[in-house]
Design a protein that fits this description.
alpha+beta, elongated
Amino acid sequence: MDNIAGKKSSLTIVTHLAVLALVVIWLIPTVGLLVSSFRDREQISETGWWAAMFPVEQAVRIRPEADGATMDGDYGVLTGNLFSGGSGEVAGFGLIGRDPGAAEPGQTYAWYEVQVTDENGEPDDERIEISYPSDGEPEFPTETEDGLPITPDTAVLQRSLTVAENGDFTYRDEGEISRAPSIYIVTEQPPDFGLQNYRQILTSDGMDRAFINTLTVTVPATVIPILIAAFAAYALAWMEFPGRGWLVAAVVGLLVVPLQLALVPMLKLHQTIGIGQSFLGIWFAHTGFGLPLAVYLLRNYMIGLPRDIIESAKVDGATDFQVFTKIVLPLSFPALASFAIFQFLWTWNDLLVAKVFLPANADSWVMTVKIADDLLGSRGGDWGILAAAAFVSIAVPLLVFFAMQKYLVRGLLAGSVK
């Protein structure tokens, strides 16, 4: 017997495990997105968000100023320290970005031009890259990576770099060093968290305008269908008229109509009647898409209200409008609030309808279009900026949800069944 006192049924345990699994599945990427929103682009490209709390080896490009360069024979020489604060630890270094850890600290990394014998037996010049202890002599290989024999006594130094573990370096190059060279080092970077991504998002061009546009779309697109649906739901629940059953069936049928199926016909209708792509057009679009669910939920909720209260009010001479505004509407607030949450979230996070029913110019962008067309287009690889933009865009929906969440379950449970 699974249901005896003190024991939980197997179904309860399975339900709890399923809920826990769903929470974990949603929580992990959300936490990852939040952590990434505080990291810079370089650290995101180097490690995953789960390693954000630990130091990471990162390749850094440094260009020391060439002002202090001197001449040593035919070679320019530049010395100094690669760390701006004078403190740091080098794990590897190099002269090209594709191999930033070509040599270890305490070594000299050099490019030499050597003479090789090609496949036809003709001499040719080729560059080789070698590393050797800074206090030692270079040891040249006998052949190149392609298998061509090298003549070591023909080697001519092109450039070299010696880096100590503390960042002290000596750079040599053919001729005078007139501009800053590019030096790549691999160094351990501490965790770096900051608000730079959020600062950049909030101060970026057009974000304030996109926020105002989103509110301009969302608030009317939430209020209008609720007002219309409340009157329609009361009529379908408490007023007798021919064809009421067919109207209820039509409302249920409209719930299964795909949104994408109606986009083009509605846009053509708007253009025909002169609305076109405008805020008025997108209000009508969201109203049309949200009305079936609103009418269905509110009608099922209202039909479950105590009949005695409504009939007593009518016996006392109250009109249907008075019954609706003074009795039914206040009692239906949980259902109204639950639908308002869903409609607000849906409208705020909408991208498809906004792309279709709003003009393509930047002055009419809502936040989702701003993120998709502007930020994602110009900063496709900058995941920190995109993560910060995502959290900025969900701030208002979260406030609405937490402010009205106590009505959500109550309204849905009452409105989902007759």
